[in-house]
Amino acid sequence: MARPTGGCPPAFDATAVSTALSSWAWWKGLWDTEAALAYLTWYAYVVVAWLLLPGEWIEGTVMRDGRRKKYKINAFPTALLALGIAVGIVYQKGPEPLTFVYTHWVGLLTASTIMSLVQAFVCYVASFREGALLALGGNTGSHIYDFFIGRELNPSIGSFDLKSFNEIRPGLIFWIVLNIGVPALLTTMDITTDGFGFMLACAITWVPFTYTVQARYLVFNQVELGPVYTALIIGVNLLGYYIFRTANGEKNDFRNGKNPKNLQYMTTESGRVTCLWLSRGRFQRGSIRP
């Protein structure tokens, strides 16, 4: 029998896990029709919001075939509208409707995982059509690896780019993290280099559900932090987000031929790498140039 640990780290009972995995009732319990319909409604909302809400069209980087894709940047108004709808529901009916997410958490997780798998599978099959631009790292010939890492570079339905859409909207907005500086995403390796496979499709699952495990844990193990520790946690979180945003913003500027802060850069086999935070540290390999 596993020893009690007070919840952190959680107790692990190998026998219980084995029993659950071999039980059809356990697998059946993962499915929740009501939660699946709710998740499909959420996904439909972000798609319709992408289509109808105003937003600037931004050109991405030049691809290997010489083309530039255009991306509609309206994730922030999509998030604001979702937040407004949630506030309106609470105002009209109280907070009880929002407990649906808590009571149907497992079902929502299952629905999101199935959505990830379906998208990854459809995109993998579609990547074998004639004329598809493949990702260099996702065209190895290994079906399992290519399915996971992504075979096609930018699978799209017309102007609707699946990869950039899934990177931002279903997961990040569901997590209530409003990524205001969205255009910088278009020069990240996820968009310019990686294909769209299960690894990136699964972002709609692991971002909102793993990043909220802490809150779910606190529901079962309530902790009174007090104002000092609460402020400290918020401060560390904001500092981390600031570093994340400034680093990505500077890399985005540098990749677009701008260097307003005269940052140093490191020359590598694949190009130049720079950001304020790297410049303040010491590069172990390569050369540093002003």
Explain what you see.
GO terms for molecular function: Delta14-sterol reductase activity. By secondary structure, the protein is mainly alpha-helical. The chain folds into two domains: 26-223, no CATH class; 225-290, no CATH class. The protein contains 14 helices and seven strands. It has helices at 14-21, 24-29, 33-52, 75-93, 100-103, 105-126, 143-149, 162-173, 189-192, 198-201, 203-210, 213-220, 226-255, 276-280, and strands spanning 56-62, 68-73, 156-157, 160-161, 265-268, 271-273, 287-289. The strands form three sheets. It has a three-stranded antiparallel sheet with strand order 6-5-7, with no helix packed on it. Strands 1-2 form a two-stranded antiparallel ribbon. Residues 177-181 and 281-290 have low confidence and may be disordered.
Attribute tags:
2 domains, mainly alpha, three-stranded antiparallel sheet, ERG24_DHCR-like, two-stranded antiparallel sheet, 290 residues
Could you give a short description of this structure?
The chain contains 14 helices and 7 strands. It is mainly α. Strand 1 (56-62) and strand 2 (68-73) form a beta hairpin.
In terms of topology, how is this protein built?
Layout: H1 14-21, H2 24-29, H3 33-52, E1 56-62, E2 68-73, H4 75-93, H5 100-103, H6 105-126, H7 143-149, E3 156-157, E4 160-161, H8 162-173, H9 189-192, H10 198-201, H11 203-210, H12 213-220, H13 226-255, E5 265-268, E6 271-273, H14 276-280, E7 287-289
Antiparallel strand pairs: 1-2, 3-4, 5-6, 5-7
